[in-house]
Amino acid sequence: MNKNKKALSILMRTRMRPPSPSSSTNRINHMQFPPLDGGGGVSSSSQDGSASFHTDFERVRESMHSAISMNKTEILDAALDDFSEGYFGLHNEDRRTLLLTLAREYDLNRIQVRELMKQYLGLELPSGDKAAENVHEEEGSFSAFYRIERNLRHSLKPMYEVLFERLNTHPGGLRFLSIMRADILSFLAYHFWTPKRNPKHMSFQGGKCSVVEALDSYLKEKLITWLSPANLQLHHITWDDSASLLEKIVAYEAVHPISNLLDLKRRLGVGCRCFGYLHPAIPGEPLIFIEVALMKTVAQTIQEVLWDDPPTPESEATCALFYSISSTQPGLSGINLGKFLIKRVIDVVRRDMPGISTFATLSPIPGYMQWLLSKLASVERSGSTFSENLLKPEEESALLEAAEEFATGKNGMEVMRNLLSSTSYEWTKSEKLSLVLKTPLMRLCARYLLQEKKRGKALDSVGNFHLQNGAMIGRMNWMADRSEKGLRQSAGVMVNYIYKVDHIEENAQSYFSKGEIQASDEVRAYLEPQEDLQEEMKD
Amino acid sequence: MNKNKKALSILMRTRMRPPSPSSSTNRINHMQFPPLDGGGGVSSSSQDGSASFHTDFERVRESMHSAISMNKTEILDAALDDFSEGYFGLHNEDRRTLLLTLAREYDLNRIQVRELMKQYLGLELPSGDKAAENVHEEEGSFSAFYRIERNLRHSLKPMYEVLFERLNTHPGGLRFLSIMRADILSFLAYHFWTPKRNPKHMSFQGGKCSVVEALDSYLKEKLITWLSPANLQLHHITWDDSASLLEKIVAYEAVHPISNLLDLKRRLGVGCRCFGYLHPAIPGEPLIFIEVALMKTVAQTIQEVLWDDPPTPESEATCALFYSISSTQPGLSGINLGKFLIKRVIDVVRRDMPGISTFATLSPIPGYMQWLLSKLASVERSGSTFSENLLKPEEESALLEAAEEFATGKNGMEVMRNLLSSTSYEWTKSEKLSLVLKTPLMRLCARYLLQEKKRGKALDSVGNFHLQNGAMIGRMNWMADRSEKGLRQSAGVMVNYIYKVDHIEENAQSYFSKGEIQASDEVRAYLEPQEDLQEEMKD
Questions:
Q1: Across the interface, do A228 and B169 touch by the CB < 8 Å criterion?
Q2: Any chain B CB within 8 A of the CB of A194?
Q3: pLDDT on residue A379
Q4: Of A20, A338, B22, B539, which residue is the least packed, with the fewest Cβ within 10 Å?
Q5: B168 touching A, CB under 8 A?
């Protein structure tokens, strides 16, 4: 008995490995999917355990054709099975060729579309006023409009829609479509693609591929419809769930990797919650899941959340802290299920735990260092005396003094860049240096989060995700994540986004329409001197 | 204790009433929905218990406008609630006016559609051959095509799509949409409609209303997508289900009404199965359900199925008899969920009970008498000596002799019509008369089932339903349903449709493409003399 207990205890502490060596490429961070590298396709197939053999391309192509063009539904099921099995057996390059074939050869019938358009343009547009006077004439002309419009709607659907629709209602088909879309995204991210077979047809290299982009945008729209929140079930994930489901949580937790079974058990235990969205067609595998810690105050470091014992008694909790949200499906990139999940979870927690009034995140800032280092480098390159100094004079002199023994550089910015880009993170080991860097790093982080944008949206992907969901920036936390990843991404800074229940929609709306970012006074305070500086720089 | 048992026994035998007096108008027979009369709308609303007050039309119209045009999702939820509550409070006539407003004022932007079409027609269609040679040029011109096609797809969506989409993801919205569609169908069936408010806009009377037809066809397509079998759950309905769910089975059982709790319990007990399709957004209310009896042989009368005690021991059963399939949603008319339900149930029964090899129905023939009586009347009216005699000479003389004391008429057909159209069904009480009528009634029934068509499909709605699902006509059964309804609809004849697992798809396909009806030799045998007769008539 005692022996068993000991064995269990060892098992629980054993470092966990994701179910397949490739699954790390499937990890998705905070709803933002990095362009899949060439391995994207393989990782999907190896998950299905069928990458070991190579299927004949032509056979798969034929089964795809059958799956699109057949009528008899029983044989159709077999054709769909054939096609998906064959697809999983294809090498990456063959998958790409097949997707390109699908996009090109099962496109619209443009001759028919043009014919209908000509008919339509030949109709006289009925005017509202006249219509009221002679209803029967109006009726006749409207009915011609509706007829051609309906026909046009149908003929504007590419032929590959049939394949998507059929797969969606076929067992396992929705999951297959999600993998297919992951492959399409990997195709689109794979810029320089050299042809293998049919070189005549496959001869483009690099650049855009709008025929595959059209395939992607069509499939994405379909997936958005099929995965509408009405079709998803919120599931409270607990230690009583099946091992096969929990294994997926371990494999796909992208933000703070789960180290062993004890760690997992703790994240599902007292003081914690984990919720996932399940689709009936993909049972036992949440499409996305969120981890929540119930706390007395909004946590400032990930240490408090994950490792500080013991957890807060639930009756004393006033805050639900979302510390991780991970998607399991690279193929659902750009389909914001997280937004609905967060709202549903807020509703459930408010209903079940009236003592909780604060809903906040403790989030990474994945793009901060990348932005800052390239900003420092570009200022350096320009070399002009008029170029912006990212450091204030007093920050620069303090830094130059403290950094003497760690890094060199012709000015403060170069020293800063050298310190921050060193992968040994020496600066974090010197208290003096950390202190000197804190001021500019926090100030520049506020600038990055509040002012740096791309097409009117926050440059930081996690920031953009929470802001579009209606959160505000509540607080920045120094040395909140000392892990290698945390230091590399954001010099250890983390941020609390706050979901104020009464302002979620208003914030989401003003962010969406005007790009306005809501932030607390505390965060704004970092910026004011910076704004003055920018004013000066403009002169 | 004994007293309680007695009370329970009385309760179990108490005749059951549908949950609301109006629900009888909601009963749908075998997937074929009769045109809803003026009461259709009211019945939906009274189910929601809000028909008692009359909502102000303008207020509902405004909430509809908000629900379509608003952006903020939180207030949007309130607007959708407002709109659906308001809608339920409207009188039938106001609902119709509102639906017409929705169809007319939230239609396409046709100016924009025409503009895009003109742009599109201005593009040069890239040829496949040229494309292969100059990929980059092809790329540019294709991307213009895709862009305009995508824009056209969007602008060909009527504005009311937003309302449908928003309601679909709103709690209770899918159910509301189903009620709204029932109202649209009732609108379209309500030919002579006199205007009440805004007479200038509402002045058409009778005839087609293609703007509302377009609304209906659009909503129907949306519902088909949302209710795809992938989103439906098969539920085995048992006596352990909630009273509120079982109440719905009682209310909507359309084929063989459930008389009391004992009857219901028997239909869910040993030797029986009941399966329903549930959608996650409409919990506790199967959209459609099917009742199955497990039997030693294919039943010939409904008596054997419903009332003969005791049921077959399940281990001895070789046949699964589908004796009733009912839809609970008039608004899902034309969306064939029954087809998928039957296939799923066949799969489940085959898996769980390998002893069962025959899958058959015992089905009513709802249109037989209506067809026969109008056929008899039209032959009579034409009065020509060359017109078809539906009776063979020997049938006619036997009938004239046997019918002497029951009915008069100048010939056999007139006597037959008088006998069959009498609502006292005297003919069933005379053994002699029944015997004499049996031969022509069975023969003509085979003709009705196998040869009478409308637009290439079987005229009988139940027949068309099973044939399009891939069944064949197996056997006709004399005096199989002696209920008033059975005699009125089909002179008591019922039919066994057989689902042969290996031929389902083939049959469905040949029925769909060529209108071919598969039937057993036994059924065909009724027809051969009739075909000879038809040959003679043509000369």
A1: yes
A2: no
A3: 84
A4: B539
A5: yes
Nearest CA-CA distance, residue A269 and chain B, Å: 28
Chain A within 8 Å of B143 (Cβ-Cβ)?
yes
Contact status, residue B72 vs residue A509, Cβ threshold 8 Å: yes
- Residues constituting chain B: 539
Third-level CATH fold of B368-538: Aminopeptidase (3.40.630)
Decide yes or no: CATH 3.40.630.150 for domain A230-361. yes
Select which of B30, B256, B279, B466 is catalytic.
B466
Give which of A77, A80, A136, A153 to mutate to test B binding, by max B Cβ within 10 Å: A153
| CA–CA gap between residue B441 and residue B433 (Å, rounded) | 12
Question: What are the tens digits of pLDDT across the range B67-87?
Answer: 888 875 556 788 899 999 999
Sequence-distant (≥ 6) Cβ neighbours of residue B457 within 8 angstroms: B464, B467, B468, B511, B515
Task: Measure A388 CA to nearest chain B CA, in Å.
Answer: 39
Cβ under 8 Å to B: A residues 92-121: 108, 110-111, 113-114, 117-118, 120-121
Q: B139–A173: do the CB atoms touch at under 8 Å?
A: no
The side-by-side arrangement of strands in the sheet containing B494-499 is B233-236, B272-278, B288-295, B319-327, B358-361, B494-499, B472-477
Chain A contact for B10 (CB, 8 A cutoff): no
- DSSP secondary structure of B163-194: HHHHHHTSTTHHHHHHHHHHHHHHHHH-----
Instruction: Mutation target for B interface from A110, A134, A350: give the one with most B CBs within 10 A.
Output: A110
- The CA distance from B332 to B354, in Å, is 34
B203 contacts A132? CB cut-off 8 A:
yes
* Residue found by looking up tokens 């789960």 in the block: A258
Angle at A64 between CA A60 and CA A68, to 5 degrees: 170
The whole-number pLDDT of residue A56 equals: 86
Burial class (CB in 10 A: 0-12, 13-18, 19+), B4: exposed
Say if CB A454 and CB A505 are below 8 A apart. no
Nearest CB to A504 within list B74, B168, B280: B74
pLDDT for residue A261 is more than 60: yes
Torsion from C-alpha of A47, A52, A58, A60, nearest 10 degrees: -30
Establish how many alpha carbons lie within 13 A of residue B316's alpha carbon, considering only the half-sphere containing its beta carbon. 7
End-to-end CA distance of chain A: 79
pLDDT at residue A312, rounded to an integer? 85
The percentage of chain B sitting over the pLDDT mark of 90, rounded to a whole number, equals 57
Task: State whether residue B154 sits within 8 Å of chain A by CB.
Answer: no
Interface predicted TM-score (ipTM) = 0.72
- Tell the residue number behind the tokens 């969920």, with chain if given: B337
Instruction: Establish whether B363 is a catalytic residue.
Output: yes
DSSP-assigned states of every residue in A189-248: H--S----S-TTTT---SS--HHHHHHHHHHHHHHHHHT-GGG-EEEE--TTS-HHHHHH
pTM of the model: 0.73
When scoring A505, A506, A512, A514 by the number of chain B Cβ atoms within 10 A, the one with the most, hence best to mutate, is A505
DSSP string, B447-495: HHHHH-EETTEESSHHHHHHHHTT-EEEEEETT---SHHHHHHHTT-EE
CATH for the stretch A40-107+158-226? 1.20.140.90
**A118 contact residues in B (CB cutoff 8 A):** 121
Residues of B (265-294) whose Cβ lies below 8 Å from A: 280-281
For the record, the structure tokens of B302 come out as 């409904």
